[in-house]
Structures are given as C-alpha cells and as structure tokens.
Amino acid sequence: MKNELLQVTPEIATKLLQRNLNNRNLSDRLVTKYEQDMRSGNWTITHQGIAFYEDGTLADGQHRLAAIIRSGVPITMYVTRGLKKEQAINIDMSRPRSVIDGIKIGELSDWIEARHVTMCSVITHPKRLSTNEIVEFLERIKPSAQLATEVFAANRRYLTGSVIHSALSIAHFNGEKRSLLTRFAEVLLTGVAEHASERVIILGREAFFHNINNGAADKRDKFHKLQRAIYAYCHGETIKRLTVPKEAIYTFKGLF
C-alpha cells in the first residue's frame, strides 16, 4: 500500500467520488457534520483519510469527499492506495460498517443477505463468529439458509425472523422435507391451520405471541420450542403443550 498526504480540493473530490462504485449508502447527517467542521476550520489531519482498492475503486472516505464538495474548502488528508478487497471487513469508521457491509464491499459472497447473517447469532449462540467465519458457515449451509428465507419471506409483528429462519434452516439441514417446511412456514405466518396435524404449528406460533420479548434468552427458548414444533409436525406427532426440549432436536453436525 502507498500512503501520501495530499490537499484534496472540491474539484479533485468530485473526480475521486466517480470511483465510488460499491460502497454504503451516503449518510447526509455525517456529511453535514464533516462539512460544518471543514467550514469552521475545525477539521484536522489524522490517520483517517481516503483509501482506494488495488483496482482503483474507492474503499473509504466517501463522506469526507462529499463534505469537501459541499463546503467548497480544500482539505489536506492522507490518501492510501492499493488496499486489498478482503481488507474492507476491517475498516471501522465514524459510522461503523456492519457485517453485511463488509461482506458486500469485500465481495465475500454474492448471495448472503442481512437476514442470513442475523440467523447466525441465534444458531451459534453463545459462540460469536467473525465476518469470515459467518461467510464460511453460511456457505456450508447455503441450501438450508436460502430455503428458510424463501419460505418465510414476509414480516409479521412479534414473529421474529431470525429465530424462525434459524429453526427452519437447521431442520432442513437435518433432512426435513422442503414441502413440509414450506407448509409449516405458511401456517406460522397466517395462523390458519386446515388440519388437526397443523395444530402443533399454531402452538409454535403462540410461543412468539405469549412472549414478545426478544432478549437472547427469549430467542433461545423460542428457537428450541420451534424446533420441537417442526419435528412434531414433520413426524406426525401429536402434542398438547409446547415446552423447551431438554436436548437440542436439530444440530449442525460437524460444523462446530
């Protein structure tokens, strides 16, 4: 990497922003804050500046460049060139990058979405995964992760998507049929059961409405209860009351 101190004028900033091909949405609030600091003379040189990837596209600094243009004030700052794409996941600025920001900007995956990432915190609790570990894990369960978000794609109040997606994906990974999981998700979403065998799905649904809290412990209870409901439905088991099972029903065997 090459690092140099340069004066960036509004004209130069405009040209540099043309290389901003794959970045986060611009935060107007942050640009305004930077602009005010620049206009008032409160902007100082730090180690943070503008960075470009090896292919010449902008890696970091779009808010600073936008603020220079708005303020009309030339600003001296460090410009770094030659950053590797995979290093994007470690860039942490005033507005920190999320895991999905790092995945997309670093081009670590072309299919992983935020809803896939949120599954991991439920599935792997209490273990916390790095961005690279999340990508590796999701790639290994890709068919199951995609199925879960496909069959339960809508949002409903109190029906926590991360919990439901996690339970559906782990059940599919362990061999439960797509057709049964699709129907389970439909009844879970609508609350309309057509057969006595689907009563257990309603019990799973009620677990969310009887406890609307979404703390870590609450999510874990719902996650395990939903696994119990899925297993009962897929195997034709009749249960009158849904409780947290003493042992995990489904696991990602060999992945942890």
Key structural traits:
single chain, 256 residues, alpha+beta, 2 domains, four-stranded mixed β-sheet, 11 helices, 49% helix, 9% strand, elongated
Can you walk through the features of this model?
This protein is an alpha+beta fold. It folds into two domains: 2-96, no CATH class; 114-234, no CATH class. It has eleven helices and four strands, in the order E-H-H-E-E-H-E-H-H-H-H-H-H-H-H. Helix 9 (178-190) packs across helix 10 and helix 10 (199-210) runs antiparallel to helix 11. It is elongated.
Helix content: 40-55%
- What is the helix tally? 11
Average pLDDT metric? 90
Determine the N-to-C terminus distance.
36 Å
Proportion in β-strands: 5-15%
- How does the helix and strand content classify structurally? alpha+beta
DSSP strand tally: 4
- Radius of gyration, rounded? 24 Å
Spans of 5+ residues with little confidence (pLDDT < 50)?
Answer: none
Major sheet characteristics: 4 strands, mixed
Shape: elongated
User: How are strands sequenced across the largest beta sheet?
Assistant: 1-4-2-3
Structural domain count: 2
Order of helices and strands: EHHEEHEHHHHHHHH
